[in-house]
Amino acid sequence: MISTFRRAAPGAGALRAGTGFAPCHHGEVLQGVFLDGGVPRPGLVTLPMAGPGSRAAFVPRPGTAPEAVTVSPAGRSKATRAAVLAVTECARTAGLPPCGGELRLTGGVPVGLGMGSSTSDVLAALRAVADAYAVRMTPGTAARLAVLAETASDPLMLDDARPVLFAQREGRVLEVLGRALPPLLVVGCTLGGGRPVDTLSLPAADVGDSEVRAWERLRGLLRRAVATGDAALVGEVATASARRGQLVLGHPEFDDLCAIARRAGAVGVQIAHSGAVAGVLFDPWVPDLRTRVRRCVHDLQADGIPTTRTFTTTPAVTVKELLDGPAHRRGDRPAGPDPARRPARVPAL
């Protein structure tokens, strides 16, 4: 157990107890292999979700070896590696001696569902160590250390709202797709009984020129969807990407999920390509949104697909506002694909 946090001992310079937070996501809108200067590279576009995340607290122990980092809860090896890497990086930046310490992780991100739990832990740990050394860690540095700590990383260190195509094994942005995804309402659920998925154990699919061309086409469609604020086109891309992901994941409920989405008048579905979480995507400005969402939830549960939470990808607009408010009045749609954003609660339906 980690003791009560306290300031570092006298003589430890600027060292102090540090804290950090990182969000999660709700799987991917698009994942595949894309051209980068003519070279095929794995990449992904995540579906943002406000609310859950990982919090980390790091208590330095001056005089201990930099690799002497203990973690609670036990077994969070990726976050531990991240903290050790961050200690070396931040100590050099701050001009202070590196040391080990105690890392405590808390938060409500489910593990193994493809919601970026490991990256959330890793990023929170990096930020807590940086806070302890009173240095600012840039997103580029955080991405580089995250990949070193966990082999492949989600783009959670990029705090702005812009959707990006991210090379998860290199920790860099391949393309900024635009200002913001069109607003979406997402009915979350889990496939495969919610069983965790070991990402790195998944078999690698054979990738040929035709597959790369198909992913490049989806990339172009998503770029256009962002530019025009077209929620239906986002749904088309996400569904096509999810269907390709089934070649590896093989969720038995996937066809039923797609059929439920069609009956409810959704624009498509999305899944975590490295887990069990999935979502039915709705254009939040269609008529009778409440009726559509109710039918979707009913059909999912009747089909044995557990629902999780319903949320919006635009925190400025809550689910309650959409279901109870003027969502059916097209004139109330925010102008453009990038309405004002502010923190908001993400309620369950």
Quick structural gist:
The chain is α+β, with helices and mostly antiparallel strands and 349 residues long. It is 33% helix and 24% strand. It starts with 17 loop residues before the first strand and ends in a 25-residue tail after the last helix.
Per-chain topology:
Elements: E1 18-36, E2 39-60, E3 69-72, H1 77-94, E4 101-107, H2 117-132, H3 139-150, E5 164-167, E6 172-176, E7 185-190, H4 209-228, H5 231-249, H6 254-264, E8 268-271, E9 277-282, H7 289-302, E10 307-312, H8 319-324
Parallel strand pairs: 3-4
Antiparallel strand pairs: 1-2, 2-4, 5-6, 7-9, 7-10, 8-9
Helix pairs in contact: 1-2, 1-3, 2-3, 4-5, 6-7
Beta-strand portion reads 15-25%
| Major sheet characteristics | 4 strands, mixed
Termini Cα gap: 36 Å
Task: Give the quaternary arrangement of the chains.
Answer: single chain
The number of helical runs is 8
Order of helices and strands: EEEHEHHEEEHHHEEHEH
Arrangement of strands in the largest sheet: 1-2-4-3
Write down the overall geometry. globular
Can you characterise this structure?
The structure is a single chain. Helix 1 packs parallel to helix 2 and helix 6 packs antiparallel against helix 7. Helix content is 33%, strand content 24%. The two termini are 36 Å apart. The chain is an alpha+beta fold and 349 residues long.
Which structural traits does this protein have?
disordered C terminus, 10 strands, four-stranded mixed beta sheet
